[in-house]
Amino acid sequence: AWFEPEHxxxxxxxxxxxxxxxxxxxxxxxxxxAAQWDRKRLSFLDDAAAIALPASDDKETLWRAYYGSxxxxxxxxxxxxxREMPKRYWKNLPEAHDIHALDDRAQRRVEGMLxxxxxxxxxxQTFVQENVAAARPVGAAASLTESIRExxxxxxxxxxxxxxxxxxxxxxxxxxxxxxxxxxEDLQGRAFVGPAGRLLDRALGEIGLQRSSFYITNAVKxxxxxxRGKRRIHKTPAHQEIAACVDWWKKKSSWSSRA
Length: 259
Prior knowledge:
The chain has helices at 10-20, 58-70, 78-84, 96-115, 123-134, 141-149, 183-188, 195-206, 239-253, and strands spanning 26-30, 33-37, 42-46, 175-178, 215-218, 225-228, 231-234. The chain is α+β, with helices and mostly antiparallel strands. Mean pLDDT is 81; it is low at 133-141 and 255-259.
C-alpha cells in the first residue's frame, strides 16, 4: 500500500496493521520512510532505504476491472466515499481514476436495471408468477382487503402474524407507499403505527397535514423479519416478494388520483 500522510504517523499507526494483518507479509511506503512486517518482526526503513512508489503495477488492471464489476450504481454516494477516504488521498487509489466515468454512467445503469427483467428465475419467482396469474379478480374494497388477508403468493405469510392492509380515503388525492410493515404493524394489523408511522405523523403535522387525508399502504403486505435474540429484526424483502404484491398496489393506486 502507498500512503501519503500529512503528518509523521507511520511509527504510531504501524502496530495497528500488525494486529490487523499479522498473518501477512506487508510493506507500507510513505514519502518519509516505510514499515515492513515479515510475520515475526516489525521494522522501519528511512526514506533513502525505502522502496520508491512504483511507476506501474501489473495488478492494478485486474483490481480496476474487479472494482468496476462490483460497482453498484444504485448505491453510489460520493459524500460517504469522501468521508471514509478524503478526496485528497484519491490520487494514490487506482480505482479513483474510474470513479468519474462510473458516476457518469450510474443513472443510466440504474434505469437499465429497473427496466430489465430478472435473468435468474428461482423457484419463488416461478411460484409468484404462477399464483399472480391464477389469482381471482377483485374489484370492491371489501373483497380486495379480504383477498390480501388470505394471500399466500409468496412465503412471507408463513412467519407473519397477519397481512397488513392499507388505510385511508377511497379515492384518495395522494397515496403514500412504504416498504413493508414493521414489528408493531404486524402485531396490530395496521399500517404505519410503529416508529416510522410516528415519524410520519410528526412530519405531516409540521406542515399542517393529517394522515387521514392520504391513503397509506406498503409495497409488501407481510412483515419480513429475522430473529435477533428475543427481537424480530426487519429484513429487506426480495424482488420476488415485492412482485407478489404488485397486483394489490396497482388496484389501490387506480383509486387514487395521484400515487
